[in-house]
Amino acid sequence: MREIIRLLRIVRPYYWWMLFAAFLGFATIGSGIGLLISSAYILAKAALHPSFQELQLGIAGVRLFGVARGVLRYIERLVSHNTTFKILSRLRVWFYKSVEPLAPARLLQYKSGDLLQRITGDIDTLENLYARVVAPPLTAVMISVLLWVFMGSFSITFSIVLFCFHAAAAAGIPFLTGYLNRGTASQISATQTELQTKTLDCIQGIGDLMLFNRLDEHVKTLHALKSRELKLQRKQALIQRSHESLTGLLMNAAVFALLWVLAPQVSTGAVNGVYTAVIIIAVMASFEAFLPLPDAVQHLEANATAGKRLFEIVDAQPAVTVPESPEPFPESHSIRFQNVSFSYPGTYSAALSNISFTVAEGEKIAIVGPSGAGKSTITSLLLRFWEPLQGSISIGDRNIDRLDPEAIRTNIGLVSQKTYLFGETIRKNLLLAKPDASDGELKDALKSAGLESFAARLDQWAGQHGMNLSGGERQRMAIARVLLQDTPVIILDEATANLDIITGKSVMQQLLKLRGKEQAKTLLVITHRLKDMAQFDRILVLDNGEIREQGSHHDLLKNGGLYASMWSLQHRISPPELINNS
Ligand code: ADP
Ligand code: MG
Questions:
Q1: Full-model pTM
Q2: 418 lines ligand 1 (CB under 6 A)
């Protein structure tokens, strides 16, 4: 229920629209009742052979309500759909705005199928918030009040009897069906999420599943999930469809009860016999407003579940705080890490502990170390995907937490280990980095990245997730992108790992030669393979989240520390020969 109240608070600007639409719903059902009452009045009265004059009121009523019902129904549909779409678009914008700051760090914990279900399915469920949850009770209350007043004009007893049956229809049946169906909506939504996740897994991993002969097993799981969903939906439908019969039953009971209290009053002459039909018809017609109520309870549960799942994401704290008024990006692009420590949430060991280093503008630095040493974490902190737990990081002597994260990302280009290519053409994948790039620029970038052959294939489809390209080609696409982006600082995280030695070497030569407008670009190359290390100004050796050594290739070899042993291991040279051979 808390979720529904929170959701309603978000759509506060549309309260008047909701009220207006509910009132139109009331007026529509009210006209229906009016039409039936007037007709009943004419029929009952006509049986007594009155003068035509005496029927005039009833005839006018039939005309008025007959026309009004159609017109009002049309306007009501128009207004309530309009309200629904206004609410939906507000919720979509609200959700997107809340989720954006969470990317990418906080969203890692969700499976992509689950996230998709929340973004599409759960938001779509909220489409019913107004029309199926809020409007029916409002309309039912207005209709009941109208009817109680109408009945009260004959006798207060009638009002009380009708009130009892209305209360049973409004609370009793929804409570009963809600009780029988409790938990079903959330079970359905959980099953649907699982189904989405498994289906996505199956589509994306179909190659591996076939290789390991596990496709049948996977398909069986999907079948089982689907039949569970159908079974739950059948249960829900069975219970839901019993509403109408139950409401019908209550309506008939109300008619009998009213006849029972009405008959003595008619025989004593307290109520004119002509009104018997009018009263009974009005009672029957009033139950129309109660038909959607049990459904409203179901939708209430579904909306609350959807709301809860959305709030779960929205309430997550962003991994980094964005400054209210960011300072302008500094002129200098020197980078400084000062006593930085960091560990990922939910892990016990530190990914980085007490790291300090500086990178001057234009320097070419290599960060090396075994896998898991914390090399990529340095990049994630610098680009503000995460925030350090201790210490500070600054660019041009300005702490990065005072800068706009977007400005950081337009000044520091990254080729990460996980290159994402979209299911688009090669050209579109490149234009992501520079939307207004000319074909000439695209071809230059491809050439520098060692992909000359792609210049003729710009309009070729890259495949879903770029799967039509080889691993090495995808990496070079990523390098071409970062070249197009033309940032003063470039970070390559294992960017040449999948390239053969000759291509890797020539791409790296191109990158080392890169110059910005005024001076050479700063280059940070992260790698666990020690190749061509002499060309870097400085090498940072990282192990277990700590900087073990730093210095030039030759100095480090001479020191005979971790770097020297890594080098000897990778080049199968025994330490004494090392210095001579390097
Ligand atoms: P490297 O790039 O040097 O191979 P990383 O910086 O990626 O290493 O990782 C450093 C440590 O942090 C590793 O032990 C790794 O398992 C852990 N780690 C990396 N990313 C995450 C994450 N998103 N959540 C939890 N632990 C992580
Ligand atoms: Mg890494």
A1: 0.75
A2: no
